[in-house]
Sequence to fold (138 residues):
Amino acid sequence: MTQTHSLSTKVMTESELMELMEHNLSDSQAGLVALGFIQEDILESGFEGWLHQPASVTAASFYECTDEVGGRLVDTYTTLINQEKTLDELGVDQGMRIDHIECMKGLQKGMLEVFQSMELYYETQEYARENYLFREEN
Fold:
């Protein structure tokens, strides 16, 4: 499901675009993630550099971040499972157990949010590119 934002169609300055992005992307977790990636890329490349950043660079950043976070989640999950097994082996009664299905649903939700964030990133970059560059050409 695509999240849409009401972006105006007027030509805007860099500061107006930044304000609009911050406003429109702050209403969901996926939007906040996209905004974080956008802000980091602007810090690294400048606003105009970000406007011209190739999609492959952005996708690589999302890939690296997802790989790192996913790896940490798997490590945590493995640790919890091992602790549960150890307690079972020791005969310790456990009132709470890991809900494996809910863990998988959480992982699925997280992965979908990554793609939703990337989609919002690209939509925002495209909107900014069209409106900012149009102003520069006049």
